[in-house]
Amino acid sequence: MNVRKMRLYDTENIHSGDDRDEYEKDYARLIQSPAFRRLQGKSQVFGAGSGDYYRTRLTHSLEVSQIAREVARKLGKSYAFLANKEHPGLMIDPEVVECASLAHDLGHPPFGHKGEEVLNRLLQEEHGLKYEGNAQNFRILMFLEKRAGSGSGLDLTASVLLAINKYPFCIDEPGRQKGVYRKEWEGIESLRLAWEMPVGCATLEAQLMDLCDDIAYSTHDLEDGIRAGKIQMDRGFFEDDRLVAHVVHEITNDPSYDETKWENVDQSAMVKQVLINYLEQWEIIYAECDREPSKTRREMKARWVRAFANEVGIIDDPDSGWKKVTLIRDGSTNLELLRTMEILKKLAWVTLIKDFRVQRLHKRSEVMIERLWGSFKTYEAGRLIIPPDWLESYEAQKDKWSWERLAADYISGMTDAYAEKVYAEFFASRSGSIYERD
């Protein structure tokens, strides 16, 4: 049996018995799913609907998948051991990485990371439950999504499920902030055991997907920020000591901050240098592009994606005894380029997310999610105002999930616009027919 193409439920391919490859089926199931379509209405940085130019979760996911697939092809040609297929977790199939990239953000609720933060706080304070976007991915893929012949999500192959699983832990363990909810972890853990995966280690495909997500984030969000005027391409902006201090603060206060990566590094000096280099590169490209800002933005983004993608490689990780996908140079981790990527990510964060107008949007979205939660959180009130198919699913399977988790599922599946629509129905005067289609 090919453990990479095994499925948890449709093990005999009863419901997908055509001549397509298994990963082609996964791809079709993902892009034709309602959860994937809804990404077009979910925020990336700016609120969905802020403008035709800016990225949404959908366009971000498509861009990550394009980068990941191309890097996967390159790695397949560069590392002979991948062709040996010595272990199912030490392989890189471009189609698998592409599918994982398309699915990596399905669990994000409306209003971006703020929505995730608010839902997690409400669930933890009131019910001791967690909400986290990566865990919600698996709840969607393995339970909430429906396809013909399956009552258990999209029933993707083991390779794709494990390629999405960049945090291979049960999130319900004490102290875990990221991972997989316990119910879905049972299935993921069974696949990992079948593959004989080392505890706590992600497959190479999951690591590659995660790194390409960072590449997209650190380049594409900056392009959007420049287009929006939040990042001003002049020396006054880039040489401001307050900007440098804010970037350093975000780096050192990130929960994933690793002091060893910054050992013996003057962080302020490096941030200043990276910012100035970024501006000077802009000025060169701006002249090459006949001083045309739109063309300059696209070329700037393309060159940075290429700079990162060309350095992606695989090394042995002595700490885990596994292999690691990272940025490398001369056979070792390229810490300088990893630090540069982190600085650019934080530049996007402090200039876009921390912008007071975006923070006002976050405050507004916090209020909306809190009040929507208050409307749906109890069975007695919520069952009267939740769509009938959701209520039917709950009644049929309430031994597997609590009403509180159902309410969080329903809210988290909303697009930004739909959350505002439901909020307006509950709390704002409006005109129009109550029979408008949801």
UniProtKB/TrEMBL annotation:
Top-level taxonomy: Bacteria, Bacillati, Bacillota, Bacilli, Bacillales
An individual GO BP term: dGTP catabolic process
Gene name for this UniProt entry: dgt
Source species: Cohnella endophytica
GO terms for MF: dGTPase activity
Leader sequence residues: none
Protein name as it appears in the record: DNTP triphosphohydrolase
SUPFAM superfamilies reported for this sequence: HD-domain/PDEase-like
Cited InterPro entries: dGTPase (IPR006261), dGTPase-like (IPR050135), HD/PDEase_dom (IPR003607), HD_domain (IPR006674), PHydrolase_assoc_dom (IPR026875)
Pfam families assigned: HD (PF01966), HD_assoc (PF13286)
Keyword tags: Hydrolase
Organism domain of life: Bacteria
